[in-house]
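Structure request: Alpha/beta hydrolase, Microcella pacifica.
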Amino acid sequence: MVNDDSPAFHPDLTRARFTPRTSATRGNRRLLRALTRIGRGRAPKHGERVDLGDGVTVRVHRPAATDARTRRPAILHLHGGGLIIGSATQGDPLCRRVADELGVVAASVDYRMPPEHPYPTPLEDCYAALRWLAAQPDVDPARIAVIGESAGGGLAASLGLLARDRGEVALAGQVLAYPMLDDRTDESAAAHPRMLRLWNGPSNRLGWGMYLGAGTAGPAATPLDAAALELAVPARRADLSGLPPTWIGVGTWDLFHDEDLEFARRLTEAGVPCELHVIPGAYHGFDAAEPKAAVSRDFVARQVEALRGMLGAR
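Returned structure:
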């Protein structure tokens, strides 16, 4: 007998059953980091790679038809990887797409990562890239949006708060795809833990622990005091007012589902325009794992359209 209440993956996501429950672990983190950083030393096709110093680089994509005398909107992309793996090359397809479709300058930053570089280094690297982008002669500094997925979405949320606090660059919007926002989230937060894919509780503890300076001991062992912890973790921020319009997308079988919905609720209560897109039956990183699926194409298209509206792009 079939239980109609039993969980199921989205029908478009045909690989879900064969996708691992997590990716980065203590045992494979170093190998995955090496693999995900292949090609990061080369400039993107039809783009350029710019060295900002201190080991921080940005991969820059401009529209095919460009005029250096025209100031354009821009986006800054922050890659995912649980704060411990990945590289800016992951953003090449999206950055190329928005550059061509929206006529914007798109840049993705290779921020330094823990455990070698714990908080605040990754966030400060992203902020340095934001300031660099705002200073480019072909960029309108009043029309810059930030976009990120997973850990990159969490860093994008932190960057939005940091930019608000410092008042040097006023973001026009932020697009957060299944963002990693709360170090307190564990597998118990999942509606159906057995449905988790590509990121689970142990991996989340590993990523947050390294980011917060506790290494493999987990986030609860962080040496940061309460004030620093609030600055490091978006979900711990008491004041979310004054942030730019925000788009958040997450699947129902994502470990971050509940924390993302809660962040969206708090943004709305703080008076921040927030669009929330929840995908039934979608798992973490589904659009990257199954990019040709109709639900994945729709998910990315919604992000591009959100950027179009935020930036007033063509």
